[in-house]
Amino acid sequence: MYMNIHVERGEGGAAQTVHLWDDVDGYLKFPYAEFAYAYRRNEAGEKVSLYGHNVTKIFSWAKNDTTVMESDLPPETRVLTDTYLESDDPSIGHRILFFDIEVDSKNGYPRVETASNELYSIAMYDGITQEYTILAVNNPARQAVNIPEANVIMFDSEEEMLTKFLDLYETIAPTVISGWNSDGFDVPYLYERLKRVFGKHEANRLSPIGIVKYSRSKETYQIAGVSSLDYRWLYKKFTYTEMPNYRLDTIGREELGISKVEYDSTLDVLYETDLEKFLKYNMRDVEILVKLNDKLKLIALVQSICHIGHVPYEEYWYSSRYIDGAILTYLHRKGIIAPNKPEGGDEKYKELKDSDEEGFIGAFVKEVTPGLHSWVYSLDLQSLYPSLIMSLNVSPEAKVGKISNWDMEKHIRKQINEYILTDLAGDDSEKMSPADFAEFMKEGEFSINEFK
């Protein structure tokens, strides 16, 4: 299965070259041309559209041709659904690198746009060796450091430290990198600082094929061959818990009972006066990330979701992307071709996003009548939708009845001679022999859940 994918675009944004990393075959590079196709209605076609018409594959069509199907697929989805159609299994052998950087802020908060502030240190954790490493520039006092839990390497200059980091990074060859707010700061700042110190060519060593680009639509840096998964965003999306804030210290306390290393004054003062504590502070941030992932396994969750949808891992944030991919995969396994999406959908979504609306309207909201009103109260019910689904029994796993004399152990040992089935209200009941019960369960495609 795929570990990473990058599709290189040419003039006009047209897909040209596919870079694919597979957990068995390794790195693959090939032209996109064989995937640059769509479908058009043709009675002699071997495939069938969702509407029941025969269709055939075409490699050329007009941009405004509304009769074609699947001409609007993202290139990555096209390649991944075609190449891995029969499997939803996550790939194996990933090399996850957790990291955190500390930057000089004596002359003001470091800005990604200029990356003019020097790096003090880089702490990281290699998921394969399960070892912590701290790279640091010695402070003016050149204090000794003793941190047994980590491999600490000291340098006389930032240039030496960054050189060692790039060498170590290429040795680890991560397929996934993660930090806390790493997409918002650590990744872009590190890249821009490397570019400022060494030039773009050296900075692009963050990618195994030397391609790092800024995505305006996603507002993140895309590192070809390496999935950047910001753990702060993973946590906000998949934990469904409202926190007072999403600082790493708060999350560490709430989830793990671990807080960041406390200090007086500023980090710059700590760096100059107590280098060992400063580096422990840097390492603790990475340690919290590692323990969070050990507990929540959110990176594995993202990989599982994205493989079902056959999309790149960074697409986890856009549920429509992996849902579209999952639907397409399902249809293709049945030999069915999907129609294009309605035109204007992306523009409509962009309008909503630009106007600070989070999505499409999903409920009726009554307009407020201005004025002073008596006997007004407001209800905010926790988990309202799931509660309604259970109360009204409208879930896909809806209950159809009860087995009054159910006993799991006796059922497994085939010691129940007669099953007594009742309706949900408990008014009507029916007795079944083990053979009739087995046939009833098979024909109805029912499952049994125990509630205690």
What does this structure look like?
The chain is an alpha+beta fold. Helix content is 34%, strand content 19%. The protein is built from 14 helices and 18 strands. The strands form 5 sheets. It has a 6-stranded mixed β-sheet, sandwiched between helices. A 4-stranded mixed β-sheet has the order 4-6-5-15. β8 and β9 form a beta hairpin. α7 packs across α8. The protein is globular, with a radius of gyration of 28 Å. The two termini are 40 Å apart. The model has no long low-confidence stretch (mean pLDDT 90).
The number of E-state strands comes to: 18
Shape: globular
Question: What is the count of DSSP helices, taking H or I runs of 4+ residues?
Answer: 14
- The helix fraction, in percent, is 25-40%
Termini Cα gap: 40 Å
Strand content: 15-25%
Quickly give the structural class.
Answer: alpha+beta
Largest sheet: 6 strands, mixed
Oligomer: single chain
Given as residue ranges, the uncertain stretches (5+ residues, pLDDT < 50) are: none
